[in-house]
Amino acid sequence: GNNADNLREVGMWRTVRRREIGESSPQSSSNFIRAQRARSLTLANHKEIRSAHKSAVNTLQIDTSEARYLLAGASDGSVAAYDIQQSSYYDRLLNTSRHEALFLVDKRIEQGHRHAVSSVCWYPIDTGLFVTGSFDHYVKVWDTNTTEVVLEFKMPGKVYAVGMSAIASTHMLIATGTEDNRVRLCDIATGAFTHTLPGHRDGVWAVQWSSSNQWLLFTGGGDGAIRFWDIRRAGCFRVLDQHNSQIGRRPPVVTGKLASASHIRSLQKARQQSLHSDQLNRLNNSTALDWKSQRQHHSISTKTHEHATAHYGTVTGLQTTPDGFYLLSAGTDSRVRLWDVESGCNTLVNYPATRIRRNWGTQIAVSSDSSLVFIPSANIIQAFDIWTGHLHSTLKGHYDVVNCCTFHPQYQELYSGSNDRQILIWVPPVFLDLEGHNEIHDGFVRADEDAWSD
Fold first, then answer.
1. Fewer C-beta neighbours within 10 Å, C or N terminus of the chain?
2. How many Cα atoms within 13 Å fall on the side-chain side of residue 349?
3. pTM of the full predicted structure?
4. Tens digits of per-residue pLDDT, 307-351?
């Protein structure tokens, strides 16, 4: 532990030194430090969230506009928001900043949810609104300042998941997954349902908007299927098949050095040429078929396509990488899979088995540099290397099943919620406070002091 921390600190200071003398660019230095911080998470001992919930914490989300407010939903029907930047008070005795709920809405108020809150999300533009979904069959839109419901949508069954696109500029749609097998899109602007998307053969447990295309929506269901939707067009345009695997070179694993722009461009060009070649081969093969065999082939492939499965159990969690190129999925078959969004192929990264709860959705998280995926597994969180599948670390701290986690892209912190009713914070180590470095720290302070400092 201490040796690893010391080596990590040496590497950090070496990176800072290289940046000072101009040997590395600001972007590469920043990326390296962020990656190192994300890979060294431990349970925070200087920062604490005082959970206001009386039951299991099921869902968490950090707002995308300021990255300052954490929204949480729980099984007792309560929803609370926490300021994770400014503490409520500082405990000098324990050297800990405590963050208490800014507000709490629950079943005690008339507009509160009557059953468990399964999913929450912030309005992407600002923190003036937030959305909640519950097992009481309602999706509600709340005014943050007044903590009152401004819109509500009655669903045909329990609500498993809600989500809004973080990059949408032309729509304000809430994607909802319920125990009904149709995905519904609710429009905040009109207060009405705009789309009903049929296709799943069982309840829809997970919804996830693309992080690079405002029209692209991914959904996962109890039928084991993951479906891709372009909401501008009718019908699902892709169903992922776990047996349809990626053939070709996998993206390089970043190990501290940032690939040059020319290298990335050459990889992209090679990939485009490969895809173009595959398309030409498919076109040549199809033209060789006569009209009758083409029609028969289309009928068989459509039937196979519609019944393809991504998991041998319920798809309980979906998450995209920040660049939008890849999609991660988790299922009750204890498997985690990485999908290429462009090709729809299973990349065959072999992640170790996980223990995912079977009666609820699972909220997984990805680090901001796309190097790690965090998966709740029983009462721990497993951090896997996205590209190799290797188990990087295991985060232990909760006393009961972990239901959700979310990653803070600016601070490289992880927040997790559990059946133990707690919200834990996992943070990178504070290197200057390590034992044995007080002299260095004091030296920095003295060098920074002016003549009139106390």
1. C
2. 25
3. 0.81
4. 899 999 999 999 999 999 999 999 999 999 999 999 999 999 999
